[in-house]
Amino acid sequence: MSPLVSIIMGSTSDLPVMEKACQFFEEMAIPFEVNALSAHRTPAEVSDFARNAQGRGIRVIIAGAGMAAALPGVIAAETPLPVIGVPIKGSVLEGLDATFAIMQMPPGIPVATVAINGAQNAAILAMQMLALTDDAIMQKLVAYKAGLKNKIVKANEELAKLEYKHLVK
User: Fold this and answer.
1) Alpha-carbon dihedral of residues 37, 25, 113, 38, nearest 10 degrees?
2) Residue 54: left if φ>0, alpha if ψ -120 to 50, beta else—which one?
3) Sign of the CA dihedral running 60, 111, 17, 115
4) HEC assignment per residue over 54-99
5) What's the structural domain count of the chain?
6) What DSSP line would sit under the chain, residue for residue?
7) 139 domain residue, yes or no
8) What dihedral angle (degrees, nearest 10) is formed by the CA atoms of 138, 27, 12, 129?
9) What is the pTM (predicted TM-score) of this model?
10) Is there a domain that residue 157 lies in?
11) CATH number at residue 54
């Protein structure tokens, strides 16, 4: 089985954030891979990865990066595949630096960008892209979205049980 999605991070210190995407793909039974590559420390490896990803069967790349956050853009520059950038919250600018770096790509080199530390939404977006041409994945996605609705319905049922003197029902 070949991975459909590649999850890339600038270093393993990003794993606590990017693991949310791994967990989502595991739950949805979507084959994926995980690697650490640095646009600044391993540029040749990043270039090689990006140029060869499509040929290896990868369909979507999720790239998490903090601070200067060059990784998603460097990958997008060398692959025709969709790239989803996950800005990683840093200690100095709280992830805004990474967000702006990932969002401000030049024309022709788009990177979809999710919220700071938004790896789970990146995984859902990747699944939506995959679902466009895969009915089985679309069925899983529809079931997942229905489950989100059910969580809110159940939450409101629990809230209806609250008893407060001034709570108007």
Assistant:
1) 0
2) alpha
3) negative
4) HHHCCCEEEEEEECCCCHHHHHHHCCCCCEEEEEECCCCCCCHHHH
5) 1
6) ---SEEEEESSGGGHHHHHHHHHHHHHHT--EEEEE--TTT-HHHHHHHHHHTGGGT--EEEEEEETT--HHHHHHHT-SS-EEEEEEP-SSSTTHHHHHHHH-PPTT---EE--TT-HHHHHHHHHHHHHTT-HHHHHHHHHHHHHHHHHHHHHHHHHTT---TT---
7) no
8) 0
9) 0.92
10) no
11) 3.40.50.1970
Tell me whether residue 30 is in a domain: yes
- In a domain, residue 91? The reply is yes
d(CA 130, CA 128): 5
Structural domain boundaries, residue 40: 5-134
| Cα–Cα dist 84/144, whole Å | 20
- pLDDT tens track of the chain, all 169 residues? 899 999 999 999 999 999 999 999 999 999 999 999 999 999 999 999 999 999 999 999 999 999 989 999 999 999 999 999 999 998 789 999 999 999 999 999 999 999 999 999 999 999 999 999 999 999 999 999 999 998 888 998 999 899 998 888 8
